[in-house]
């Protein structure tokens, strides 16, 4: 399987963004593993408003459960991030941009895609309750065994 080009290898750094370099950048953005290792931006403008994106994403992820209102807010955030990704991709694809700007935009999109990956996980049923119940059953089993062993001594 071919490896993903390093950010430094995606363009030749001669100052001119060629059609092939645009294609490589867009391929990286559309790759299933493109956002692996990407950093969620500290701040991002979504829906005309600047938000502390990284803090917001991790705040939602750390909660044990989300209310219906919070889930709706997550959906709105995801819609805004998806719009932003599409806008940036269009800028990379047809915009008058140099290599440095294109690579910077690519990194921004990869961070946004990473944020979207995390936010999509919030739609899935939480496994915390299941894992906690499993651990509690094991603890109860251990206590019963300990009680049994103490009785036969």
Entry summary:
This protein is mainly alpha-helical and 153 residues long. It has two domains: 116 residues, no CATH class; 29 residues. It has five helices and two strands, in the order αββαααα.
Which labels suit this protein?
153 residues, mainly alpha, 2 domains, 5 helices
Q: Would you give an account of this structure?
A:
This protein is mostly helical and 153 residues long. The chain has 2 domains: 7-122, no CATH class; 125-153. It contains 5 helices and 2 strands. The chain has a two-stranded antiparallel ribbon. A hairpin with a 2-residue loop joins strand 1 and strand 2. The protein is elongated, with a radius of gyration of 23 Å.
Class by SSE composition: mainly alpha
Total strand count, please? 2
How many strands, what sense, and barrel or not for the largest sheet?
Answer: 2 strands, antiparallel
Termini Cα gap:
61 Å
Q: Regions with pLDDT < 50 over 5+ consecutive residues? A: none
Kindly estimate the percentage of residues that lie in beta strands according to DSSP: under 5%
What would the principal axes of the Cα set say about the shape? elongated
The strand line-up of the biggest sheet is 1-2
Mean pLDDT: 86
Compute the CA-based radius of gyration: 23 Å
Total domain modules = 2
Helix content: 55-70%
Sketch the topology as an H/E string, one letter per element.
HEEHHHH
Helical stretch count? Answer: 5
């Amino acid at each position: 399987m071919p490896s993903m080009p390093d950010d430094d290898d995606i363009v030749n750094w001669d100052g001119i963004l060629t059609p092939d370099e645009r294609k490589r950048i867009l391929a990286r953005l559309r790759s299933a593993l493109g956002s692996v290792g990407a950093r969620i931006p500290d701040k991002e403008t979504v829906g005309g408003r600047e938000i502390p994106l990284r803090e917001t994403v991790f705040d939602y992820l750390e909660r044990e459960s989300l209310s219906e209102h919070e889930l709706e807010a997550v959906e709105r955030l995801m819609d805004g991030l998806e719009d932003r990704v599409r806008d940036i991709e269009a800028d990379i694809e047809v915009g008058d941009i140099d290599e440095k700007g294109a690579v910077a935009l690519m990194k921004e999109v990869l961070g946004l895609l990473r944020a979207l990956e995390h936010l999509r996980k919030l739609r899935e049923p939480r496994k915390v309750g299941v894992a906690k119940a499993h651990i509690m059953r094991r603890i109860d089993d251990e206590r019963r065994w300990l009680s049994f062993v103490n009785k036969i001594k």
